[in-house]
Amino acid sequence: MEQTPLISIVDDDEAVREATKSLIRSLGYHAETFGSAEEFLAWTQIDDTDCLITDVQMPGLSGMDLQDRLISAGREMPTIFVTAYPDAKLEKQALRGGAIAYLRKPIEEDHLLEHIDTALKRRR
Q: Dihedral of CA 80/82/86/89: which sign?
């Protein structure tokens, strides 16, 4: 029996976290939310994540820092970056680090879902 994919959402904006979680769950996926990169990194079930959606700019560790920490720890998971402040240099860095996408907020649902599908296919 196939397990429901787990999408982890890391964003310091609670409204964005909850809206994204609601969307993910409406599609039949399991979603976990985290208010910071540090909170996600401390989670004991981090390796169960099939796709990570993370904000780029957050207090403490940024989304880019999170990606670096995951790669350093050998935890490569399909990652979708979201940001209200697009930056071509950061986008290039994210994609070079293996990110699936670098999306601008507010995120178009169809666009996000397309990238989640790509991430889950890559994870399998």
A: negative
